[in-house]
């Protein structure tokens, strides 16, 4: 399966592209926004890359870039860099990518959202309000899109080694005190599992934090 990774140069995106490249089941397409990034993916990692800024491209251009892909993973983000980029990347960039999938008949879409996105009370009075408005709205659009979606809602992302373990879904709220921490390596590994298991994960919204259960167990709880 050819899988486009939007935000491939990001910290989750890079781990995911390399995992998909190693797997016999997938062929990643790294969607990046800088020629040096494209060179790095193609020359150093042997991963095909598309130079497509989601912010600057039209739906038709994004659709062209995604031609030949059967699934898309959204793991891009403005990184909280001001309200305008939250609008143009986290919100409209995600919406344009959803529209591009509809236009190009790519039915599978895995969205990296954020923990508690649908619970306004959890974030309305925090510094993350604008970011969360964008994430919540993009999730909402995806649920209404007719695509075969999975929305992953990780907590705070860490860059230490993966643990291979996640929190049981019915115990996740108890992780609030550590900001629902999850290592990026674990998130990337779970994205790969989601792509491998559409029959379990399609049309689902899944909160994620590290915990004590192996990932196969979590899949069975969905
Ligand atoms: N940080 C957290 O604690 C947290 C928590 C929950 C969810 N999330 C979500 O998790 C996802 C992955 O996070 P991360 O830590 O991997 O983020 P990251 O390292 O900041 O990577 C985000 C990537 O998005 C790319 N990007 C930005 N604008 C773009 C555009 N116009 N066109 C194409 N690509 C663009 C960036 O490109 P450049 O490399 O060129 O800058 C970067 O590679 C994001 O969706 C984020 O919102 C984060």
From TrEMBL:
Read off the InterPro entries from this record. Answer: NAD(P)-bd_dom, NAD(P)-bd_dom_sf
Cite the CDD domains for this sequence: SDR_a5
**Pfam families xref list:** NAD_binding_10
Where would I find the NAD(P)-binding domain in this sequence? 7-198
Q: What is this protein called?
A: LAME_0E00760g1_1
């Amino acid at each position: 399966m050819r899988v486009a990774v939007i935000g491939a140069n990001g910290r989750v995106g890079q781990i995911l592209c390399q995992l998909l490249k190693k797997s016999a089941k997938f062929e990643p397409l790294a969607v990046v926004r800088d020629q040096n990034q494209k060179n790095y993916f193609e020359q150093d990692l042997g991963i095909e890359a598309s130079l497509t800024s989601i912010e600057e491209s039209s739906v038709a251009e994004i659709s062209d870039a995604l031609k030949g892909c059967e699934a898309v993973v959204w793991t891009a983000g403005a990184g909280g860099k001001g309200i305008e980029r939250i609008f143009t990347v986290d919100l409209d960039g995600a919406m344009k990518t959803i529209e591009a999938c509809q236009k190009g008949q790519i039915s599978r879409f895995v969205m990296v959202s954020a923990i508690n996105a649908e619970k306004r009370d959890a974030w309305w009075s925090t510094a993350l309000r604008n970011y969360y408005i964008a994430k919540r709205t993009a999730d909402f659009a995806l649920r209404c899109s007719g695509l075969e979606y999975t929305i992953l809602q990780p907590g705070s992302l860490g860059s230490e080694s993966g643990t291979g373990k996640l929190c049981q879904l019915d115990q996740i709220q108890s992780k609030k005190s550590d900001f629902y921490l999850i290592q990026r390596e674990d998130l990337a590994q779970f994205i790969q599992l989601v792509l491998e298991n559409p029959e379990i994960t399609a049309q689902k919204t899944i909160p994620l934090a590290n915990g004590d259960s192996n990932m196969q167990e979590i899949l069975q709880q969905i």
